[in-house]
């Protein structure tokens, strides 16, 4: 492995959309007697001897680590943008004044077949405080549908191959009013991608990609899709072409080849995943599927002013109360059994605020939505690094109210976090990725049954994504037991762990080594990675590959930030 | 043999972050925190029934014992408030830290049972501990004295509207030399804005008991002279009403040092001695300062 030149020059830069390249952190958050100042953009901080230890998430625990001075930098995410002052009015306004589409009331009529689909529990992360955006939007839609005399309404959780949502989760997302009105009549349910009677094939793209969809949705006069765009990967044609699809359709873009040509899946312009979804969207349009897309964005406010607010602050801004809270929370979590830690953290409800809502034609809406996401998350970063460091939190898209198993650890680190870039990856090709997570050999038996077999049977033989795809995917995807659990229990589809592995295939190809600090050694080795007990050990191990004094970039996350690497 | 006691603060410092605060990294502009002190200090908790009950208990025991021992207060003319009802603004000259405790134990009931004290936001509310102590012990609310603050005024107006009475020292601080300082307009403004009567009070002698800057008590009798309530006239603005109030306190001072009738006559002819003393800056100003002159001992001629 050849050693490349050091990849970034130290510089303190306030960056983001409004970043000017000047030193500092932008405007102060608030001055006495004044309105709160504009939220500060992201910050790229060069580590020197005065830099305090930085906070890293490590699953359900936290670590404070001091980074080597002179060759490390920290990317802090931008501060939360202010939310819309009157979200319900904004939603109504979006429905009445949509983008490139007739107003929603003009598309509703008595006797029509209306399907409302919505993003499942994998968004947002962590779950937002009630009322959830989906409840607000769908209630507004139903108000208009009631005015128009629409009776035939189905509300579908567009979960593709994810696990079915429980009643409690549906009630949480949609509210009791909607649940009680529609669920007992069988008009509110989870999408079933394995229902032979409930799915329909709508055609193929020019690339031979099959397009599959929920039959009910396909036969509707109008599909209203209600989305939450937490990251720039979400939304657009991915909502309907993936969310309401099945294995036959999804396999055409959820595969190793597509993911390796997706750089990154957070950057739609350079994402083969999105191009494939957009092609499938064209087929939907050609098939006469009428979609009214409603996309929403939320700010970065995961922790609000509550007891966890310290987690969103920059370390040198921690007050005495913050430090005491942190020490208390850390000490408490360290001493609790994992199940209790998990229960406490998964009960956290983020005080997200709605920052935008757009409705209308899918692609036109999605352009506006993506701009809003970038406005919140982009941080300008100059140059790549030799080592990228992530602290993995307790929750990812696929372990809400569940356990983050080793495969989800891989997916979160090498899939989601690694891909939170635009332009170039934060770490150079041949670099090392270090992440902190306990990575125990623990699985949720109800939610992730096929993951257990994937870990025990597939990863025991190989970690090569292509070999995994060729040798094992079909048997898992078509396994009757997994299919049964997916349809009747609350299990992810049999093929889902494969997709998690593919999600990290671009990173696996790009990196020379992956090290997990604090990870269970046997489990980490099964993943094909190297365990390290401390960050210092991990950096030492990385130096074996990269040479002495490699440059390090720690991407502090959450709250979410996305590196715009030039 | 000397035993060295370990300093817990040094121990904490040795532990470093997060036991102690982290330094702001170079090149990063520190955040200006939204202050919760000064004018922004929230005192609502100090008006809760529990805080009020403990405050009253402390004032009626410790507070009264200290003020009685130090000041031997002689309250005069409290009958002038017999016809007064409802929330009131009490204004007094200010010579000593004892003034507040003295007034909180001598202002007649029922006003002192629901009384807040306007206290300098930059002095009493500059740290969390002193702010909490002032809010609890005196029922103090922060008042900006160096600049116009809508927040201070609005807070005081809201409290008056809620039925609270207000004690305010319009000089804005303790006298340096025993002579009074020019009155600020806050009390008059609130009275005009809220249509609340002003009760002027003159304190004579607290500066001699515990003058500004002194840490030694010099116990002696103090006179608390309560004036007749004042209401702004229909078209009177706050500025001219402030002059009226200052004049009323000056007349009370004259009354204390002489007698009611003599003071009245001087007031009618515009000869009431000024509270701020002679204008010249010489030994004669200090010589004639109320803080230095012996207390008037002659009895008042009329009425008694």
Automatic annotation (TrEMBL), chain A:
Spans annotated as Disordered: 1-50
Polar residues: compositionally biased ranges: 1-11
GO molecular function: lactate racemase activity
Record-linked Gene3D superfamilies: 3.40.50.11440, 3.90.226.30
Domain LarA-like N-terminal intervals: 69-264
UniProt-recorded name of the protein: Unannotated protein
Lineage, opening ranks: unclassified sequences, metagenomes, ecological metagenomes
From TrEMBL, chain B:
Taxonomic classification: unclassified sequences, metagenomes, ecological metagenomes
Biased composition (Polar residues): 269-279
Entry GO MF terms: 1-acylglycerol-3-phosphate O-acyltransferase activity
GO biological process assignments: phosphatidic acid biosynthetic process
Protein name: Unannotated protein
Organism for this UniProt entry: freshwater metagenome
Record InterPro entries: Plipid/glycerol_acylTrfase (IPR002123)
Signal peptide: none
Annotated ranges, domain Phospholipid/glycerol acyltransferase: 88-206
Disordered: annotated segments: 254-304
PANTHER family: 1-ACYL-SN-GLYCEROL-3-PHOSPHATE ACYLTRANSFERASE (PTHR10434:SF11)
Pfam family, one: Acyltransferase
Biased composition regions of type Basic and acidic residues, renumbered to the chain: 281-298
Keyword annotations: Acyltransferase, Transferase
